[in-house]
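Lab notebook, bench 4. The sequencing result for the construct came back, and we need a structural model before the next group meeting so we can plan mutations. Quick request posted to the team channel:

Model the 3D structure of this chain.
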Amino acid sequence: MRGRYGFGYGNWELTIKEMDPATQQTQPGATHTGKFYFKGEYFAEYVNRDTERPRREGETKEWAELFGVSLSDQDVRDFEGLERIADDLCRHLNVGHSVESWCSRHGLEPVRPLKLTL
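Done. Here's the predicted structure in token form:
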């Protein structure tokens, strides 16, 4: 993945980029990093996961409440859906495919690199 890419889902946005190789050594299996935004405000860091690990029921909402963020059940579903989408894209990129081919596979418009700084 060259550059930074952004995805939106419900009230969420996620920007991701390829992880610096030096950082990859400290987080085995991680290849991409980014930031989640909820209603335009920074929410959390993103690091792709090598294998899918379902979240424990209520985990996302409990974590958000620690920081004073109240999420609806739909917000939680959207966040977890966006996270799964990003993990799928990263797996696709890690085997040598392009962002464009991933978008095509899912019937999406090709994404454009973002000019924003993470």
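The radius of gyration is 14 Å.
Will bring this to the meeting.
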